[in-house]
Amino acid sequence: MQLQSMYQDIILDHYRNPHGRGLRDPFQAEVHHVNPTCGDEVTLRVNLDGETIADVSYEGMGCSISQASVSAMYDLVIGKSVTEAMHTGEQFMTLMQSKGNATVAEELEDDLEDAVAFAGVSKYPARVKCALMSWMALKDASARALSSPTGGADA
Amino acid sequence: MTRTVSRPAGAHQVPLPLDVEAIRADFPILSRTVRDGKRLVYLDSGATSQKPTSVLDAERWFYENVNAAPHRGAHQLAEEATAAYEAARTTIGAFIGAPENEVVFTRNSTEAINLVAYALSNAVTAKEPEFRRYAVGQGDEIVVTEMEHHANLLPWQQLCERTGATLRWLGLTDDGRLDLSDLATVVNERTKLVAVTQQSNILGTINPLGGIIARAREVGALVLVDGAQSVPHQPVDVTELGADFLVFSGHKMLGPTGVGVLWGRYDVLDALPPFLTGGSMIEVVRMERSTFMPPPQRFEAGVPMTAQVIGLAAAVEYLQRLGMENVLAHEEALTEYALAQLQAIPGVTVIGPPDTVARGGAISFTVEGIHPHDVGQVLDDLGIAVRVGHHCAWPVVRRYGVPATTRATFYVHTGYDDVDALVEGVREAQRFFGVAPSDDEGATT
Q1: B432 touches A: beta carbon within 8 Å
Q2: Based on the domain organization, do B295 and B387 belong to the same domain?
Q3: Which residue of A2, A78, B219, B326 is 20 to 30 Å from B294, comparing CA positions?
Q4: What are the pLDDT digits (tens) for B403-440?
Q5: Mean pLDDT of B64-82
Q6: Residue B443, pLDDT score
Q7: Do B366 and B274 fall within a single domain?
Q8: Distance CA B112, CA B139 (A)
Q9: Would the pLDDT of B83 be above 80?
Q10: With an 8 Å Cβ cutoff, are A62 and B378 in contact?
Q11: Is B60 part of a structural domain of the chain?
C-alpha cells in the first residue's frame, strides 16, 4: 500500500500529539487561513522578539496532514529569525513541489528535520495545499507582525 | 449523540433492477485501473458522472458529420446542425415532460440559476414594460433552504445584494430534513421566489416539494427547483412538479460537461429580460437599441454548445432505455444496503436521513477519529473514488457540527461489490489510523 509513504509515523505522531498547539499571548499578529476546497482552517499567532520568532501559537481543525504540518512547522521556526523561517518555508515549498522525487527530499533533510517526512505528500496534488496551509499562515502573520506598530519591539 | 448499533435489517442483497455487468461494459473508463492496478470503484457520480460510449459516439458523430453553427448560415451542414440541435432539445424536453420551447440550454445548473437571478434584477431596469413583471427590489424576499448547494444559494444572496431584497431560508431538522414548521411565515406575501433543491447533494434527502410549491402559489411567488441531483436519479415531470423553473446539469446524468438545462414555464420565461446578450438571441439590432427573440432563443446568446447538447440527448436516450423508475429502484436498493452496512460500523455516523424514506443515493458520513480527507485518502489508495469536504454546501456541514464529510454516491453502474468495497475501505481506514473499535463495542458516542 502506498499510503505509508504519505502517512509516515512522524506525521501521525505530530497529528496525535501536536507541538505548540493552543493560542497564546502576547502576539503581534493573528491570521485565520482556510482551505476553501475542504474547509480546513487554522488560526495562527506570531510573537516576535526583535527579528526572532519567539512563539507561534495556533488552533485549527483539519486533516492529519494539515494538523501535523503546523506542528512540525512549530518545531522548525521557533528561535529562528523571520528571514530564516521564510527560507525554511521556501524549502518546504520546494519539497511539496517535488512530486515524490527522493533526491529533493534527501537534499532538504538536514534543514527540514521532521518536516521532510511530508515528502510523500508531494505525490498527491490534492493534499499539497493541506501541508502548505500553515506555512502560508505563518508567512502572512510574520509580515503583519513586522509591519505592526509593536512588531519587532519587545514583546 | 448515542446510537445503538445492531445487525442491520437491510444488510441483505435484494436483486438489483439494473444489469450492472452489462451497463459497466458501456462505460470505457470503468475498465481502467487506478493506484497500481486496482479496479476503479467510482462512487463520485454526484460530483460528475461517467459517460457511456453512446454519448461519446454522439459527440464524435456530430463533429465528424454535421459540425456547423446552428441557427446561422444556409448551407447544408448548418441546416443539419440546426436540425440535430433542435431535435436534441425535443428529446431532452420530453425527458422531463416539457415542450421544446420551454427548454433553455445553459452551461450547467449553476449558470441556469444565475440566468434566472440576473433576469430578476435586470427586470428592475428593463426599458420594456413587459420585462418588469418579476422585478425584485427592496421589501421583496427570496427564500432558499439551509441545505442548498452553493449554486442555489450564492446567486440569490447576490441578487439580494444587488436589489436590496431580503434573503430568508428554511432550516433543517436533526435527521437531515427540511424544517417546514415555519413555512407559512418564511414564505409570505413578500416572497418573490422560492429556490429549493429536489434532492440534497450532501444529505441525500428528497424534499417534499408539493407543500412548499402550494404555499408559494398561495402568495404568488415563483418557484425554482434545483434538479441537479434529482433529474439524473429519479423520474421528474415538470407538469407534476408544478414549479416555474427546473434546472439540471448534463454532466451529472451521463452527459458531457458544458451543458445544462433551464426549464421554465413559457409565460414566465417570456416575461423575463435576457441574462447574456449577443448573437443568436436578437430580433432586430440597431446601433441605438435592439430587440430580442422569444424564449428559448432569448436566453441562448452566442454559438451554443451544440455537440454537448447532442451528447446530452444521447445520455437521455440511454437513461430512457434503462427506465428512470428502474434507476431510482436500483439506487434505493443500493442505498438501503449501504446505509445498513455503514451504520453497522462502530464510529460511523451518517449525516442525513438514516433510512431510505424519501432519500436518494448520496450518503455522507463521518468516521470518529479520522478526518474525512484521511478517510478519502485510504479509500483512494484502494481504488475507491469518493468525495470529501463540504460538498459545496458549507452551511450544511456547519449545521451538523462537522468540519466535512466523506460522501459516496451511486449510479447505474454501481453494484453491491462497490458498496462492499466502500465498507471494507472504511474499516481499513479505521485500522490504518488505529481507531478501529473492538468488535464487541455496542454503541458509539
Answers
A1: yes
A2: no
A3: B219
A4: 899 999 999 999 999 999 999 999 999 999 999 876 54
A5: 94
A6: 42
A7: no
A8: 25
A9: yes
A10: no
A11: no
**Catalytic one of B135, B392, B412, B419:** B392
The answer to whether residues B269 and B205 belong to one domain is yes
Chain A closest-CA separation from residue B424 CA (Å):
15
Query: What is the distance between the alpha carbons of residues B305 and B113, in angstroms, rounded to a whole number?
Result: 18
Separation CA B194–CA B217 (nearest Å): 10
User: B160 catalytic, yes or no?
Assistant: no
pLDDT digits (tens, 9 = 90+) for A96-153: 999 988 899 889 988 998 889 999 999 998 899 999 999 999 999 999 999 887 655 4
B72 touching A, CB under 8 A? no
When pLDDT is averaged across residues B42-46 and rounded to a whole number, the result is 98
CATH number at residue B184: 3.40.640.10
Are B403 and A127 inside 8 Å of each other by CB? Answer: no
User: Buried (b) or exposed (e) across B352-383, using 16+ Cβ within 10 A?
Assistant: bbbebeebbbbbbbbbeebbbbbbbbbbbbbb
* For A35, nearest residue in chain B (alpha carbons): B389
Q: Which of B266, B295, B320 is the endpoint of a domain?
A: B320
Using a CB-CB cut-off of 8 Å, the residues of chain A touching B367 are none
Domain end call among B293, B320, B347: B320
**Angle subtended at Cα B137 by Cα B142 and Cα B154, rounded to the nearest 5 degrees:** 40
Interface check B397 vs A, CB under 8 A: yes
> What is chain A's Cα-based Rg?
15
Looking at residue B444, its pLDDT comes to: 42
Asked if B61 has any chain A CB less than 8 Å from its own CB, the reply is no
B378 vs A3, A38, A127: nearest CB: A3
Write down the architecture of domain A3-147 according to CATH. Answer: Alpha-Beta Complex (3.90)
Dist CA B215 CA B188 (whole Å): 8
* Domain count within chain B: 2
CA distances (Å), B422 to each of B31, B166, B202, B369, in order?
18, 43, 17, 18
- Give chain B positions within 8 Å (CB) of A61: 403
Q: Check: CB of residue B221 under 8 Å from CB of residue B191.
A: yes
pTM over 0.90: yes
Residue A114 CA to residue A137 CA, distance in Å, equals: 19
Task: Check: CB of residue B281 under 8 Å from CB of residue B290.
Answer: no
Contacts of B389 in chain A (CB under 8 A): 37-39
Domain that holds residue B19: 3-50+323-444
